[in-house]
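Recap from last week: sequence in, structure out.
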Amino acid sequence: MNTRELFFWVMLASAAVIMAFILLPMIQLLTAPSLPMLQKTIRDPDVLRSLWLSIYTSGCAALISFTLGTPLAYLLARTRFRGKGLIESVIDLPIVIPHPVVGIAILSVAGRNHWIGQILSALGIRIMGSVTGIVTVLTFVGLPFYINAAKEGFESVPVRLEKVSRSLGASMLSTFFRITFPLAGRSVLVGAIMCLARAVSEFGAVVIVAYHPMIAPVMIYERFEAFGLKYSQPVAFWLVFLCLVLFFVLRMLTLYRKKGG
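Predicted structure tokens:
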């Protein structure tokens, strides 16, 4: 056996270990709950409410990230200016901050002792223990994933195409929506998927800001603490199942756009 063949088998063994490391716990999670338990769980109004709230708030976070993050992603992709590296570092900051710290930081700004919190209170906007608070947290943790993916997509679009469009009399806004955005659409969609995936899996920050109303990860934790593994697994099964269905549909859309492009 030569060195090249040995290296091939090392790579193959490494791939097998990683696949087993990822798949075995997931397979066990999906196969451990009995069918009657799964049926009973999915009929539970509290479970249905928490699952829906998880998908709804994560979708809101992805939509907000798309709306606010797209202009910034384009700006970072197309311009060079002093302090750009600092801005990119700030955008990535939510990725490295411990999850409970995110929740504490948001409450520090939205609390009554901060002027922003006082303004929100005067407007009747409540962050602590509210759906608004959950969406705020999920947007905070998911935004970097969207901006980074969208930025890479805009960078992949040749600048000369935009210059040709502008030379033909198109405005900057028209050029963006007719040329740049469609060509970067796949990366934008991937960014939205990544943002949604990150948001729907968040627990640590949400449990600080809004234990109630209860999203699915918080309910899974509560049932595990109160009743053990047996009663938390069915809820986890349905959350994973819904996520897989959602992400499968979104991935199919991504592949469709890639083939169409």
